[in-house]
Amino acid sequence: MHYDRDRLLALDLEHVWHPYTQMRDYARRDPVIIWRGEGRRLQDVDGRWYWDGVSSIWLNVHGHNVPELNRAIEEQLQRVAHATLLGQANVPAILLAERLVRIAPPGLRKVFYSDNGSGAVEAALKMAVQYWYQSGRPEKHRVLSFVGGYHGDTLGAVAVAPVPAFHEPFYPLLRDPIQAPYPDRYDCPGCRGPCRLECLNRLEELLRSHAHELAAVFVEPLVQGVGGIRVMPDGYLRALRELCTRYEVLLVADEVATGFGRTGRMFACDHEGISPDLMAVGKGITGGYLPLAATLATDRIYEAFLGEYAERKAFFHGHSYTGNPLGCAVALANLDLLEALLPQLPARERLIAHELERFRQLPFVGQVRQKGFMVGIELVGDPQRREPFPWEARAGWLVAWRARELGLLIRPYAHVVIFMPPLASTEAELQEMLALLYEAHQRAIPDLERAARGEWS
Ligand code: PMP
């Protein structure tokens, strides 16, 4: 296949408005234009191969062009591509719901489909609020979330946890959430010594004083993703579960980023043996193939929505593509492969941890964080004072641009370099990707030195 790269670039610049991107940068630095993928690599229209070190934004599980996943879609395509779930059912959506309930933390027994992670979070928010409304407690409609949390970009999801850098213009449209400090060992003064989970005291204070108006606590279990791969101390999530139960506040686990093996177990909640009241999943659910997401709920929540037609207790929420059969079919095939892959993940995680050791000695590295296949390397202008680079320095990008030169695609968040390889990456592939990342960092040192002096463009 031959593509006219220059023409595609011109058309892209002319017509495509890319997400999360200053479009002026596109004119200055050509985007990679992908035309195909194979295994853990993507190829651009010039024939150059790149490692997918960001799992195509944290969702790819088995790689690209996977025969089993392709086949699942092709076979479903011969039957029906889409049929609505409003008042009807379809075969893959039924089978996937049963399968999700089987693998989810115990107690989550109902599956509500949507088509992106933000939508799944938003459905959870509306379910939580409507649950209390229909349980005779309409005053319980606020949410508590964590500083640094991220739950998506649609307005409902933004209302759960606005990110100042992204969402400031919309503050007037939002009801601000109550925010608890995130239990971050790197920044927490209480964590300088052995962790005693002192941060839980503050959380409990907030819950105690706001329980009467709180519908739910939203948490990214174990790892804040967009916040910079910040890993919770052991035991925190379990304690959060207990506090939510004690203060009668629903716990919503946003497993959009952490779900489907990303942290090494099927769900992050599994590490601490907890069950949330609601759980949002997306991203890896289809192995990174098609836009599908879901909100899982307990029977207790579901039952608050049961009533006579005229009572208007139904969950009046849904989208055109809810329960899309192609997405559900590929999700089922993804789960077949993933269940076989899970036992192999611990060895690969250890390999990543081992390879990451030498990154700690690199200049400008403040902290290296890892949970499963989620890695964040925090860059700091002054490691002694742990002073992060300012946003404008684009420190993470200085490394990411060098990585691209070397054939590795990653996407940082501000001053945190994020590495998120597909779960099926072999040990040799992980070693190669991490060697390229190390070299990229070395190449970026002069750029980082300039940035540390306040010179950035
Ligand atoms: N929740 C979390 C924890 C996420 O990381 C993301 C996306 N990065 C979302 C929600 C939103 O998902 P989507 O981009 O599919 O809307």
Provide structural commentary.
The protein is an alpha/beta fold and 457 residues long. The protein has two domains: 5-65 and 343-452, Aspartate Aminotransferase, domain 1 (Alpha-Beta Complex); 83-323, 3-Layer(aba) Sandwich (Aspartate Aminotransferase, domain 2), CATH 3.40.640.10. It has helices spanning 5-15, 23-28, 55-58, 67-79, 91-103, 117-134, 155-160, 164-167, 199-210, 236-246, 268-271, 299-303, 325-341, 345-356, 395-406, 427-452; strands at residues 34-38, 41-44, 49-52, 108-114, 142-146, 178-180, 214-219, 223-224, 230-231, 250-254, 278-281, 293-298, 365-371, 374-382, 387-388, 408-409, 416-419. A seven-stranded mixed β-sheet has the order 4-12-11-10-7-5-6, with helices on both faces. It has a four-stranded mixed β-sheet with strand order 1-2-3-16. Strands 13, 14, 15 and 17 form a four-stranded antiparallel β-sheet that branches. Helix 9 (199-210) runs parallel beside helix 10, helix 14 runs parallel beside helix 16 (427-452) and helix 15 (395-406) crosses helix 16 (427-452). The longest helix is centred in the last third of the chain and has 26 residues, at 427-452.
